[in-house]
Protein backbone atom coordinates (compact mmCIF):
# COMPACT_ATOMS: atom_id res chain seq x y z
CA UNK A 1 0.00 0.00 0.00
CA UNK A 2 1.26 3.49 -0.85
CA UNK A 3 2.24 5.74 2.01
CA UNK A 4 -0.54 7.90 3.43
CA UNK A 5 -0.12 11.27 5.13
CA UNK A 6 -3.62 11.51 6.61
CA UNK A 7 -6.14 8.85 7.58
CA UNK A 8 -9.70 10.04 8.11
CA UNK A 9 -11.87 7.69 10.12
CA UNK A 10 -15.45 8.35 9.04
CA UNK A 11 -17.02 9.32 5.72
CA UNK A 12 -19.73 11.68 6.87
CA UNK A 13 -19.70 15.37 5.98
CA UNK A 14 -16.97 16.32 8.47
CA UNK A 15 -14.69 13.44 7.51
CA UNK A 16 -15.07 13.99 3.78
CA UNK A 17 -14.57 17.76 4.09
CA UNK A 18 -11.39 17.32 6.10
CA UNK A 19 -10.11 14.74 3.61
CA UNK A 20 -10.83 17.08 0.69
CA UNK A 21 -9.17 20.06 2.38
CA UNK A 22 -6.05 17.98 3.11
CA UNK A 23 -5.91 16.74 -0.50
CA UNK A 24 -6.03 20.33 -1.72
CA UNK A 25 -2.89 20.99 0.37
CA UNK A 26 -1.08 18.13 -1.37
CA UNK A 27 -1.46 15.49 1.34
CA UNK A 28 -1.98 11.82 0.51
CA UNK A 29 -5.27 10.87 2.09
CA UNK A 30 -7.32 7.78 2.84
CA UNK A 31 -10.83 7.68 4.29
CA UNK A 32 -11.98 4.58 6.16
CA UNK A 33 -15.63 3.95 6.97
CA UNK A 34 -17.14 0.46 7.30
CA UNK A 35 -20.50 1.70 6.03
CA UNK A 36 -19.30 3.98 3.22
CA UNK A 37 -19.95 7.68 2.55
CA UNK A 38 -22.98 9.37 4.13
CA UNK A 39 -24.19 6.18 5.80
CA UNK A 40 -25.24 7.99 8.97
CA UNK A 41 -26.69 11.41 9.70
CA UNK A 42 -24.98 12.90 6.62
CA UNK A 43 -27.26 10.84 4.40
CA UNK A 44 -30.30 12.93 5.31
CA UNK A 45 -32.63 14.93 3.09
CA UNK A 46 -33.07 18.44 4.51
CA UNK A 47 -29.88 20.42 3.79
CA UNK A 48 -30.71 23.81 5.31
CA UNK A 49 -27.50 25.86 5.61
CA UNK A 50 -28.96 28.48 7.93
CA UNK A 51 -27.08 31.13 9.93
CA UNK A 52 -27.27 31.96 13.59
CA UNK A 53 -29.22 35.10 14.48
CA UNK A 54 -27.02 38.24 14.04
CA UNK A 55 -26.74 39.21 17.69
CA UNK A 56 -24.68 38.30 20.77
CA UNK A 57 -21.78 37.75 18.39
CA UNK A 58 -19.04 35.32 19.42
CA UNK A 59 -16.33 33.11 17.94
CA UNK A 60 -18.81 30.34 17.17
CA UNK A 61 -21.12 32.59 15.18
CA UNK A 62 -18.19 34.18 13.37
CA UNK A 63 -16.87 30.73 12.45
CA UNK A 64 -20.23 29.68 11.05
CA UNK A 65 -20.60 32.96 9.14
CA UNK A 66 -17.18 32.51 7.52
CA UNK A 67 -18.06 28.93 6.59
CA UNK A 68 -21.35 29.96 4.96
CA UNK A 69 -19.52 32.65 2.98
CA UNK A 70 -16.87 30.11 1.92
CA UNK A 71 -19.46 27.56 0.84
CA UNK A 72 -20.08 28.71 -2.74
CA UNK A 73 -16.41 28.45 -3.74
CA UNK A 74 -15.95 25.26 -1.72
CA UNK A 75 -18.79 23.39 -3.39
CA UNK A 76 -18.02 24.79 -6.83
CA UNK A 77 -14.49 23.38 -6.50
CA UNK A 78 -15.82 20.00 -5.43
CA UNK A 79 -18.28 19.88 -8.34
CA UNK A 80 -15.65 20.89 -10.90
CA UNK A 81 -13.47 17.93 -9.91
CA UNK A 82 -16.21 15.35 -9.32
CA UNK A 83 -18.58 16.27 -12.14
CA UNK A 84 -21.44 15.70 -9.68
CA UNK A 85 -23.72 18.44 -8.38
CA UNK A 86 -23.98 18.77 -4.58
CA UNK A 87 -27.23 20.67 -5.00
CA UNK A 88 -25.80 23.85 -3.50
CA UNK A 89 -27.41 27.27 -4.03
CA UNK A 90 -27.54 30.37 -1.86
CA UNK A 91 -31.13 31.50 -2.38
CA UNK A 92 -31.88 32.90 1.05
CA UNK A 93 -34.71 32.24 3.47
CA UNK A 94 -38.06 33.69 4.51
CA UNK A 95 -39.44 33.56 8.06
CA UNK A 96 -42.81 34.80 9.33
CA UNK A 97 -42.83 37.49 12.03
CA UNK A 98 -45.54 36.46 14.49
CA UNK A 99 -46.12 39.60 16.59
CA UNK A 100 -45.14 43.20 17.28
CA UNK A 101 -42.39 42.25 19.73
CA UNK A 102 -40.82 39.90 17.19
CA UNK A 103 -41.05 42.64 14.57
CA UNK A 104 -39.07 45.01 16.77
CA UNK A 105 -36.46 42.30 17.44
CA UNK A 106 -36.19 41.64 13.71
CA UNK A 107 -35.55 45.34 13.08
CA UNK A 108 -32.76 45.36 15.65
CA UNK A 109 -31.23 42.25 14.12
CA UNK A 110 -31.35 43.89 10.69
CA UNK A 111 -29.20 46.68 12.13
CA UNK A 112 -26.83 44.15 13.70
CA UNK A 113 -26.48 42.24 10.44
CA UNK A 114 -25.34 45.36 8.62
CA UNK A 115 -22.24 45.39 10.79
CA UNK A 116 -21.73 41.73 11.64
CA UNK A 117 -22.29 40.32 8.16
CA UNK A 118 -19.84 42.81 6.67
CA UNK A 119 -21.99 43.67 3.66
CA UNK A 120 -21.67 40.08 2.41
CA UNK A 121 -25.29 39.20 3.23
CA UNK A 122 -28.44 40.95 4.41
CA UNK A 123 -31.14 40.46 7.04
CA UNK A 124 -34.21 42.38 5.92
CA UNK A 125 -37.83 42.94 6.84
CA UNK A 126 -40.12 42.57 3.84
CA UNK A 127 -43.86 42.45 3.19
CA UNK A 128 -45.73 39.24 2.49
CA UNK A 129 -47.38 41.08 -0.41
CA UNK A 130 -44.03 41.28 -2.20
CA UNK A 131 -43.57 37.50 -2.27
CA UNK A 132 -45.83 34.98 -4.01
CA UNK A 133 -43.83 32.18 -2.36
CA UNK A 134 -44.14 33.03 1.32
CA UNK A 135 -45.37 31.56 4.60
CA UNK A 136 -48.45 32.84 6.37
CA UNK A 137 -47.41 35.64 8.73
CA UNK A 138 -49.71 37.18 11.38
CA UNK A 139 -48.01 40.59 11.01
CA UNK A 140 -47.88 40.42 7.19
CA UNK A 141 -44.12 40.86 7.49
CA UNK A 142 -41.28 38.44 6.89
CA UNK A 143 -37.60 38.20 7.71
CA UNK A 144 -35.62 37.71 4.53
CA UNK A 145 -31.97 36.82 4.83
CA UNK A 146 -29.62 36.35 1.90
CA UNK A 147 -27.05 34.23 3.76
CA UNK A 148 -29.05 31.02 4.03
CA UNK A 149 -28.27 28.39 1.41
CA UNK A 150 -29.40 24.88 0.54
CA UNK A 151 -27.57 21.69 -0.24
CA UNK A 152 -28.65 18.14 -0.99
CA UNK A 153 -26.91 16.18 1.79
CA UNK A 154 -26.53 12.82 0.05
CA UNK A 155 -25.57 14.31 -3.28
CA UNK A 156 -23.08 16.61 -1.56
CA UNK A 157 -21.39 13.65 0.11
CA UNK A 158 -21.39 11.70 -3.17
CA UNK A 159 -19.82 14.69 -4.93
CA UNK A 160 -17.17 15.05 -2.22
CA UNK A 161 -16.40 11.33 -2.25
CA UNK A 162 -15.95 11.31 -6.02
CA UNK A 163 -13.79 14.46 -5.91
CA UNK A 164 -11.57 12.81 -3.30
CA UNK A 165 -11.12 9.77 -5.53
CA UNK A 166 -10.46 11.93 -8.59
CA UNK A 167 -7.70 13.74 -6.68
CA UNK A 168 -6.03 10.47 -5.75
CA UNK A 169 -7.52 9.86 -2.32
CA UNK A 170 -9.00 6.50 -1.37
CA UNK A 171 -12.24 5.65 0.41
CA UNK A 172 -12.42 2.13 1.80
CA UNK A 173 -14.55 0.19 4.25
CA UNK A 174 -11.55 -1.16 6.12
CA UNK A 175 -7.85 -0.49 6.29
CA UNK A 176 -4.85 0.33 8.46
CA UNK A 177 -4.48 3.85 9.81
CA UNK A 178 -1.34 5.58 8.59
CA UNK A 179 0.10 9.04 9.06
CA UNK A 180 -1.93 11.56 11.00
CA UNK A 181 -5.29 10.16 12.09
CA UNK A 182 -8.49 12.12 12.57
CA UNK A 183 -11.69 10.65 13.96
CA UNK A 184 -14.93 11.91 12.43
CA UNK A 185 -17.14 9.01 13.45
CA UNK A 186 -20.30 10.77 14.60
CA UNK A 187 -22.43 9.17 17.31
CA UNK A 188 -20.07 6.18 17.67
CA UNK A 189 -17.20 8.57 18.36
CA UNK A 190 -19.16 10.43 21.02
CA UNK A 191 -20.13 7.14 22.67
CA UNK A 192 -16.44 6.14 22.70
CA UNK A 193 -15.56 9.36 24.51
CA UNK A 194 -18.44 9.06 26.96
CA UNK A 195 -17.51 5.48 27.88
CA UNK A 196 -14.13 6.71 29.15
CA UNK A 197 -15.53 9.70 31.05
CA UNK A 198 -17.52 10.19 34.22
CA UNK A 199 -20.25 12.02 32.33
CA UNK A 200 -21.85 12.00 28.90
CA UNK A 201 -19.65 13.83 26.39
CA UNK A 202 -22.28 13.69 23.68
CA UNK A 203 -25.17 11.66 22.40
CA UNK A 204 -27.26 10.89 19.37
CA UNK A 205 -30.41 12.89 18.64
CA UNK A 206 -32.83 11.36 16.19
CA UNK A 207 -34.13 13.51 13.36
CA UNK A 208 -36.90 12.79 10.88
CA UNK A 209 -37.42 14.52 7.55
CA UNK A 210 -39.32 14.05 4.32
CA UNK A 211 -39.14 14.88 0.63
CA UNK A 212 -42.22 16.15 -1.19
CA UNK A 213 -42.71 16.17 -4.95
CA UNK A 214 -42.99 19.91 -5.62
CA UNK A 215 -40.82 21.97 -7.93
CA UNK A 216 -39.67 25.25 -6.38
CA UNK A 217 -36.02 24.86 -7.34
CA UNK A 218 -35.03 28.53 -7.54
CA UNK A 219 -37.09 29.78 -4.60
CA UNK A 220 -35.86 30.60 -1.08
CA UNK A 221 -36.33 28.21 1.76
CA UNK A 222 -38.90 28.79 4.49
CA UNK A 223 -38.47 28.54 8.26
CA UNK A 224 -41.80 28.61 10.08
CA UNK A 225 -43.07 27.00 13.28
CA UNK A 226 -39.58 25.51 13.80
CA UNK A 227 -39.86 23.62 10.51
CA UNK A 228 -37.48 23.93 7.56
CA UNK A 229 -38.99 23.89 4.07
CA UNK A 230 -36.08 23.53 1.64
CA UNK A 231 -36.58 23.46 -2.15
CA UNK A 232 -34.01 21.32 -3.94
CA UNK A 233 -33.01 21.50 -7.58
CA UNK A 234 -34.39 18.06 -8.46
CA UNK A 235 -38.09 18.89 -8.17
CA UNK A 236 -38.40 18.01 -4.49
CA UNK A 237 -38.89 20.00 -1.32
CA UNK A 238 -37.37 18.81 1.94
CA UNK A 239 -39.35 19.14 5.16
CA UNK A 240 -37.69 18.76 8.55
CA UNK A 241 -36.97 18.01 11.16
CA UNK A 242 -37.65 16.47 14.54
CA UNK A 243 -35.20 16.41 17.45
CA UNK A 244 -35.77 13.30 19.55
CA UNK A 245 -33.59 12.45 22.54
CA UNK A 246 -35.49 9.23 23.28
CA UNK A 247 -36.15 6.71 20.55
CA UNK A 248 -36.33 2.97 20.03
CA UNK A 249 -35.68 2.63 16.32
CA UNK A 250 -33.16 5.16 14.97
CA UNK A 251 -34.19 4.77 11.33
CA UNK A 252 -37.99 4.51 11.56
CA UNK A 253 -40.40 7.34 10.80
CA UNK A 254 -43.66 7.83 12.63
CA UNK A 255 -46.32 10.33 13.64
CA UNK A 256 -43.67 12.82 14.74
CA UNK A 257 -42.78 13.26 11.05
CA UNK A 258 -46.44 13.44 10.12
CA UNK A 259 -46.72 16.40 12.50
CA UNK A 260 -43.72 18.17 10.92
CA UNK A 261 -45.22 17.74 7.44
CA UNK A 262 -48.60 19.03 8.66
CA UNK A 263 -46.97 22.11 10.22
CA UNK A 264 -45.11 22.82 7.00
CA UNK A 265 -48.33 22.64 5.01
CA UNK A 266 -50.10 24.87 7.53
CA UNK A 267 -47.39 27.49 7.12
CA UNK A 268 -47.28 27.01 3.34
CA UNK A 269 -50.79 26.09 2.13
CA UNK A 270 -49.48 25.87 -1.45
CA UNK A 271 -47.88 22.55 -0.46
CA UNK A 272 -51.22 20.89 0.31
CA UNK A 273 -51.61 17.80 -1.83
CA UNK A 274 -47.91 17.46 -2.64
CA UNK A 275 -46.90 13.80 -2.72
CA UNK A 276 -44.44 12.53 -0.13
CA UNK A 277 -41.74 10.72 -2.09
CA UNK A 278 -39.46 9.78 0.81
CA UNK A 279 -39.49 9.64 4.59
CA UNK A 280 -36.10 9.56 6.33
CA UNK A 281 -34.81 9.17 9.86
CA UNK A 282 -31.32 9.10 11.29
CA UNK A 283 -29.32 9.93 14.40
CA UNK A 284 -27.21 13.07 14.52
CA UNK A 285 -24.18 13.55 16.81
CA UNK A 286 -24.68 16.22 19.46
CA UNK A 287 -21.81 17.14 21.77
CA UNK A 288 -22.52 18.20 25.35
CA UNK A 289 -21.69 21.81 24.45
CA UNK A 290 -23.82 21.60 21.27
CA UNK A 291 -20.80 22.93 19.35
CA UNK A 292 -18.56 20.88 17.06
CA UNK A 293 -15.59 19.16 18.74
CA UNK A 294 -12.47 20.06 16.76
CA UNK A 295 -8.81 19.62 17.62
CA UNK A 296 -6.57 17.14 19.37
CA UNK A 297 -8.32 13.90 20.32
CA UNK A 298 -8.95 13.73 24.09
CA UNK A 299 -8.16 10.00 24.35
CA UNK A 300 -5.89 9.07 21.44
CA UNK A 301 -2.43 10.66 21.80
CA UNK A 302 -1.19 12.33 18.65
CA UNK A 303 -4.52 11.99 16.88
CA UNK A 304 -7.32 14.44 16.09
CA UNK A 305 -11.11 14.75 16.19
CA UNK A 306 -13.86 16.45 14.16
CA UNK A 307 -17.27 15.55 15.51
CA UNK A 308 -20.57 16.88 16.80
CA UNK A 309 -21.85 18.90 13.86
CA UNK A 310 -25.37 18.76 15.26
CA UNK A 311 -27.82 20.33 12.77
CA UNK A 312 -25.11 22.65 11.38
CA UNK A 313 -22.62 20.10 10.04
CA UNK A 314 -23.04 20.88 6.36
CA UNK A 315 -22.98 24.62 6.98
CA UNK A 316 -19.82 24.32 9.08
CA UNK A 317 -18.07 21.81 6.80
CA UNK A 318 -16.01 24.15 4.56
CA UNK A 319 -14.48 25.94 7.54
CA UNK A 320 -14.06 22.72 9.55
CA UNK A 321 -12.07 21.24 6.67
CA UNK A 322 -9.90 24.33 6.49
CA UNK A 323 -9.05 24.63 10.20
CA UNK A 324 -8.37 20.91 10.61
CA UNK A 325 -6.06 20.90 7.57
CA UNK A 326 -4.33 23.95 9.04
CA UNK A 327 -3.85 22.17 12.36
CA UNK A 328 -2.76 18.77 11.08
CA UNK A 329 -0.63 19.76 8.11
CA UNK A 330 0.75 23.14 9.16
CA UNK A 331 0.53 23.16 12.95
CA UNK A 332 -1.61 26.30 12.80
CA UNK A 333 -4.41 26.32 15.37
CA UNK A 334 -7.29 28.74 14.69
CA UNK A 335 -10.05 26.69 16.32
CA UNK A 336 -12.42 28.75 18.53
CA UNK A 337 -12.11 27.94 22.24
CA UNK A 338 -15.73 26.82 22.39
CA UNK A 339 -15.13 24.24 19.66
CA UNK A 340 -12.22 22.52 21.38
CA UNK A 341 -12.91 19.03 22.77
CA UNK A 342 -12.39 20.22 26.34
CA UNK A 343 -15.53 22.37 26.00
CA UNK A 344 -17.52 19.12 25.97
CA UNK A 345 -15.01 16.81 27.62
UniProtKB/TrEMBL annotation:
MF GO annotations: glycine oxidase activity
Q: Does the keyword Repressor apply?
A: no
- Please list the residue ranges annotated as the FAD dependent oxidoreductase domain: 5-327
Origin superkingdom: Bacteria
GO CC, sorted alphabetically, is: cytoplasm
Q: Does the keyword Ligase apply?
A: no
Q: Which UniProt keywords apply?
A: Oxidoreductase
Task: State which Enzyme Commission number(s) the record gives.
Answer: 1.4.3.19
Q: Which PANTHER family match?
A: GLYCINE OXIDASE (PTHR13847:SF289), SARCOSINE DEHYDROGENASE-RELATED (PTHR13847)
Q: From the Swiss-Prot or TrEMBL record, give the protein name.
A: Glycine oxidase
* Species of provenance: Roseovarius litorisediminis
Give the source lineage, highest ranks first: Bacteria, Pseudomonadati, Pseudomonadota, Alphaproteobacteria, Rhodobacterales
